[in-house]
Amino acid sequence: MSQKHKREEIVKKFIWAAAAVLALSGPALAGTWLVTEENIGGVKGAQGSWTVKTEGNKINGDASMQLDNGAMLTYKLDGSVEGVNYTVTMTNRSDGKKNCVWKGHPPAGSGTQSQGLIGYAECDGAKLIVRASIVQ
What residue numbers bound the domain in which 84 lies? Predict the structure, then answer.
């Protein structure tokens, strides 16, 4: 592979990375996020959507999810974004989980999820895997 070709490949990768960062920043975060929550064992606990509003690096909104037993799960969202890292507190959960904080980020490496956001939510007595796709 020639030096020119290598440079072109590096530039292409840089442009794609910059586009990804721009797509995940600022007003583009507002809208609907499709979300799943699973317990650490990989069993789906809930799936649904987050309606997210942004103001600067602050985000807030509401969750409307359906539990695996068919019951509805609702809660409030309040958090912030720093670069591509999210910290979101989930309050007033209708399932009774307390002090839940999600630390989300784009997937790293070549796992089963290559887009969107993924991270753990630590709650009193529970740990969840939360996956989100921003739909707008």
Answer: 3-134
Contact 123, 94 (CB under 8 A): no
- Number of domain units in the chain: 1
Q: What is the pLDDT of residue 24?
A: 45
Q: What does pLDDT average to over the chain?
A: 82
The CATH number for 64's domain is 2.40.128.120
Q: What is the pLDDT of residues 38-49, one digit of tens each?
A: 988 766 789 999
pTM for the model: 0.74
Residues sharing a CB contact under 8 Å with residue 34, sequence separation 6 or more, in sequence order? 47, 48, 49, 132, 133, 135
Say if residues 118 and 105 touch (Cβ distance below 8 Å).
yes
What would you report as the CA-atom Rg of the chain, rounded to the nearest whole angstrom? Answer: 17
Query: Could you give the CA distance from residue 37 to residue 118 in angstroms, rounded to a whole number?
Result: 10
